[in-house]
Amino acid sequence: MQNNQQNDSSSSLTSALGNADQRKGTKEPSSRKSTGPRTQAGKQRTRLNAIKHGIRAKGIVLENESPIEFELLWSRLAEDMHPQGALQEETFIDFFWNRWSKRRFLRAKNAEIAENVKFSTVDNSRVQEAQAWDTLRWGCASGGSLKPTSNHVDMRTGIEILKQLRRSVETSGFNVEDDSRLLKTAYGLNVDGTAPFGIFTLYLLAGRCASAAADGEQKMSADKLKNELIEQLDKEIINLTAKENAALDEEVMRGKFRVDRALILSQVLMDRYMHDETHLDREGDRILRRFERLQRVRLAKQIREQ
Q: Which pLDDT score is estimated for 242?
């Protein structure tokens, strides 16, 4: 019985040692495989990958650029060119940067066009608002907000001035000194400093008549004169509102044309971009010819050594 137990123990120990040897044997090939690429092509790919990671580590790829696009361009060029040796590697890097710069250039060019298209309407609106601001500040010196114009912002400013004048006349009657400032801002003055014909002269006439009626020098009542002026102001506001709406419709149509025009860069920008693109393409061709020359030299050297 004891002999049988000893035999069983010896068999178990032998089996365990054998399994350990087998496990050890299976690990050795895996260890040998982890020593890196053995072929020359594999070593070259590893070296290029190390160079690529070094370049990316320096922050050359900008925040708005795609790392995936960077990796793909590098891999595809490396696959096509197969640089061998330090000189070919340096030339390969030069060519890679040339092509990456070309992509940056195209993005910059497209961004210029996209910005023009997207913001052409906004930019034009700001120009009109700035013109209306200047017109309002210069007042009569600029010819008034209601001078003939296609700027609907100027028209809207003039309409608001007339509405303010209407409220003033309706609630307080004629206040020639204050109301004249509003009318000058809206209509400007003639060269000789007199009021232009229309609402401005009508207001001054009605104001004088109302003052005379209040003093008993004229039979027409001030209220009647006020109502007649308000009626003329309402007609003027309606007329100007129609012109403003027409100007807005015109602006929408012009905005569509501006968007189409924005697809073509200005001559100055076209010349600059054409110059830069031509330079990049010529430089790329020059680098590629140098790379091909290095390849021929290396091939000739290998043939001689054989």
A: 93
The pLDDT of residue 124 is above 60: yes
d(CA 291, CA 304): 20
- Burial (Cβ within 10 Å: 0-12, 13-18, ≥19) of residue 156: middle
- How long is the chain? 306
pLDDT tens digits, residue range 279-293?
999 999 999 999 999
* Inter-axis angle of helices 40-57 and 67-81, nearest 10: 150
* Rounded-to-integer distance, Cα 215 and Cα 210, Å: 9
Q: Which two tokens stand for residue 154?
A: 């100027």
pLDDT higher than 80, residue 59: no
Give percent above pLDDT 90 in the chain.
26
